[in-house]
Specification:
about 25% helix
């Protein structure tokens, strides 16, 4: 077994079992056990990612490749070295948990990652969410990257050169990531995704922020979208087999999951509307910031008193019929999920190749409350490739690769609005998930092939005139508004936002 390259005078716990980690987490007061057997932890101040605190070390091996800017902020190597020294000193007398994992279900394209955490529940989180090596693989496991998670260690910005007490520092040359000052476990998951987004395109493999599932006949569908747009919910379909809920690669021989688990939002989770996710939350699952009844320990999924961004992490095999290993064929259908907080985009529209490239580079959506620090209500954003916070390379790198694959494999692309209808946030209502599921099902099962479409006038999108299981009024956003003139005004506002963003990105507006 690979030795730990950090001096530790406390105990080093290597690759503990789930049961052992649960015992440690409860015994150390880090977490509690819910009535359904899940481990329940709270993350304190940070209940979502803090992207403004993420930095790439400016170093020779990656300096020319990184798309530097607001997303990929540079930090001097000397600053990293100084903080790394403090982190090593901080860990000397700590008990630490070492967890070895893989990122990537495809044997030819996976990376090995070693996590060093000071909390047992953080070790359990990554163990359940990423891909576990077999016992034989553990004996020879050599980490490509090491992620050190010191969630209780706080930086001093004026001394350490960070923006706040929280930090995510990525040194691609030394293959080390430091995470500190935040207990939000999702930072570890996204750190692996960021690494794969840097490594795989250089090998000719497209990395994607999407979920994926497979039909009875082996047909594959992808669901792109930022957190909170419905990737996990829509891909967890009882009629189809889940490949993965968040991150995938598209290689020459098909798609593959980056992870071995799922990370589902569970605010207002119900057995009726999301039965697969509901039943996946059991012994071995990790609940983040979910309120539980102090006496019965029953999870209160409707309770948002801690955050809207309540989460559940569980192994993918907790979803009945999941595809394991998580590999699939080339996608027949691709869904771009957008959460339109203005309520003006159609709930479903068919995209041409030109429109596909446009909307992929634009990545229009709304950040949903809680998914990032400081976001308390839906906030309009344009996130290229539906995943800009995690893309070290230029967006056009990923877009060009997607375009090539769509043309080669004749994939059909759809824009799906899972946001608001009948009015903007605060006036209208969130799109009924039953209708969204019906539209997605119809598209994937090719029921819309013989349906007529009309082009709505503002965005030039082709909208089906009918869809099984969906009222025609729902398909036409202007009709869904009680005041059509108000819709026209709001739609013009959103169209102007698109034009401004397209001009900034120098993306031509599609002709339809």
């Amino acid at each position: 077994m690979q030795k730990l390259d950090i001096q530790i005078n406390g105990r080093v716990h290597y690759n503990l079992s789930v049961a052992e980690l649960m015992e440690k987490a409860v015994g150390r007061g880090e977490a509690r056990i819910a009535s359904n057997g899940a481990l329940v932890a709270e993350t304190g101040k940070y209940t979502g990612r803090t992207p403004k605190d993420k930095f790439f070390v400016e170093e020779p091996t990656s300096k020319e490749s990184i798309d530097w800017g607001e997303v990929n902020q540079p930090i001097p190597e000397a600053t990293f070295d100084a903080l790394y020294g403090k982190v090593r000193a901080y860990l000397i007398d700590k008990d630490v948990y070492v967890t070895d994992c893989y990122g990537g279900a495809h044997p030819a394209h996976r990376i090995s990652v070693r996590f060093v955490t000071e909390k047992a529940w953080h070790a359990m989180f990554v163990k359940q969410l990423l891909i576990r090596p077999t016992e034989d693989e553990l004996q020879s496991h050599m980490a490509d990257f090491t992620i050190i998670d010191v969630c209780n260690f706080q930086a001093v910005p004026e001394v350490d050169g960070t923006r706040s007490e929280a930090f995510i520092l990525i040194h691609l040359g030394r293959k080390i990531i430091l995470i500190g000052g935040t207990q939000y476990a999702g930072e570890m998951k996204k750190a692996v995704f960021t690494l794969l987004n840097y490594i795989l395109p250089k090998k000719g493999v497209l990395s994607m922020h999407c979920s994926a599932n497979e039909g009875p006949d082996g047909d594959t569908a992808l669901f792109f979208g930022l957190s909170g747009t419905g990737k996990t919910s829509l891909s967890a379909d009882p009629k189809r087999r889940l490949i993965g809920d968040d991150e995938h690669g598209w290689a020459d021989d098909g798609i593959f999951n980056f992870e071995g688990g799922c990370y589902a939002k569970c605010i207002r989770l119900s057995e009726e509307f999301e039965p697969q996710i509901y039943h996946a939350i059991r012994y071995g699952s990790v609940l983040e910031n979910v309120v539980i009844d102090p006496l019965t320990r029953i999870p209160e999924y409707d309770n948002d008193s801690i955050t809207e961004n309540t989460r559940a992490a569980y192994p993918i095999d907790y979803i009945e019929g999941a595809v394991i290993p998580s590999l699939g064929g080339h996608p027949d259908h691709i869904m771009f999920l957008t959460c339109d907080a203005f309520g003006v985009l159609p709930p479903m529209s068919k995209l041409s190749v030109e429109q596909t490239m446009y909307h992929f580079l634009m990545g229009y959506t709304a950040r949903v409350a809680g998914t990032e620090a400081g976001v308390n209500e839906p906030t309009t954003t344009f996130s290229s490739c539906f995943g800009a916070p995690f893309l070290p390379l230029t967006p056009t790198t990923y877009a060009a690769m997607l375009g090539e694959r769509i043309k080669k494999h004749d994939s059909q692309v759809w824009l799906v609005n899972t946001g608001w209808t009948g009015g903007p946030f605060g006036v209208g209502s969130r799109m009924n998930i039953k209708y969204t599921r019906a539209m997605v099902d119809a598209a994937i099962s090719n029921q819309l092939c013989d349906v007529s479409f009309h082009q709505e006038p503002v965005f030039g999108l082709m909208v089906p005139r009918e869809c099984p299981g969906v009222p025609s009024k729902v398909l036409m956003p202007r009709v869904a508004w009680s005041n059509p003139a108000a819709y026209d005004q709001q739609a013009a506002k959103v169209a102007a936002l698109f034009e401004q963003r397209a001009a900034t990105l120098k993306v031509p507006t599609p002709t339809g």
